[in-house]
Amino acid sequence: MSPLMNRRQWLSAAAAAGLPSLAFALVETDRRLVVVILRGAMDGLSAAPPWGDPDYERARAGLALPRPGAPGGALDLDGAFGLNPALAGLHRRYGAGELAVFHAIASPYRDRSHFDGQNLLETGAAQPYGLPDGWLNRALAGLPAGAATGRASLGIALAPAMPLLLRGSSPVTSWSPSVLPGPSADFLARLRRLYEHTDSALAMALSGATDAAKTAEGMGAASGGDPFPGLMTAAARFLAAPDGPAVAVVESTGWDTHANQAGPYGVLHRNLLALDAGIDALASGLGETWRRTAVLIVTEFGRTVAMNGTAGSDHGTASAAFLVGGAVAGGRVLADWPGLKPAGLYAGRDLKPTTDLRTVLKATLSDHLAIAPGYLDGAVFPDSAGVRALTGLFRAA
Fold first, then answer.
1. Could you read off the pLDDT of 57-90 as tens digits, one per residue?
2. Per-residue confidence (pLDDT) for residue 24, from 0 to 100
3. Partners of 320 in the beta sheet?
4. Fewer CB within a 10 Å sphere, N or C end of the chain?
5. In this structure, is residue 220 part of a structural domain?
6. What is the pLDDT of residue 184?
7. What is this structure's pTM?
8. In this structure, are 54 and 196 located in the same domain?
9. What are the CA-CA distances from residue 252 to residues 153, 221, 318 (Å)?
10. From CA 61, how far away is CA 41, in angstroms rounded?
């Protein structure tokens, strides 16, 4: 079978992925999930180049990576797809069976506004601004009985403000490094007593923030460079705690590569290096917990196939997504590949979306976190009953 599969071959392979050694509906609740949002629209054709497509070099003139084995070339995955050389750590994890790559994938969004695209990515609605809260927060309410026992918060955001993805009625908290001195114990005690007598919601929020500060004690703001690896180190500390949250959300910004995208000194290369280092930092910090962890790496949409006039790429449609972790049955690229011929591009300019991102999100929530499929269809991703979760993406507990 050619690694660049057509639709019929891909659907057959996806169905066959449910091997007996893989999990369909896990009952274990002591699993961890990290969702990484790459804000700005990652160029999936550069992160995971389809170097085996005969139209790749022509279509991506100026942005195409050299073939595997050449200086600065793509890191081969399966003879047709590769990884950007800045993702050497992810490439090793692919070889270890811990990374699954999804290509030509997108949310239901088909326009090119960052604001609207990120809103839909985080709410799980079929249209932007269709829901007021995040799909991950709603999913937490569907965790198996007992999953919340002993946990003050089910989820944590490593961000200065709570991302929409994690906003909602389920108990969550946030933490962000600060260069400012912390409040005194006396001040916190007074504030706690005030809130306990006047506002239960504020009292709960203060309690969660205080617990988070204790867990992250000694972790200050990064003095320089990309903060993402440090945030992933902090996420590991929270998730590895016995009574820690079940899920974490970490953001990475600056993926809007309109100019000077290519090359070892371009912004995309730096972002990919930081992403790769962040995954390594998370795995190292989690230790034994890594084998029960999955990391979803997603972005709001992709970028144009052709290079623009400023050596970058503009807002597009389909991109790539990654699922990595000790709990992942990886070592595979899943792509119903549409090809890069001009006639096959979306709107004549973009990689055509052939896989709904929700097929991966649903699989992660059901097979990894043991959330009932019916709850996902009704409450987490409303009006999505026709979107079926992929199977066989996770190892048996």
1. 999 999 999 999 999 999 999 999 999 999 999 9
2. 29
3. 103
4. N
5. no
6. 67
7. 0.86
8. no
9. 23, 15, 19
10. 20
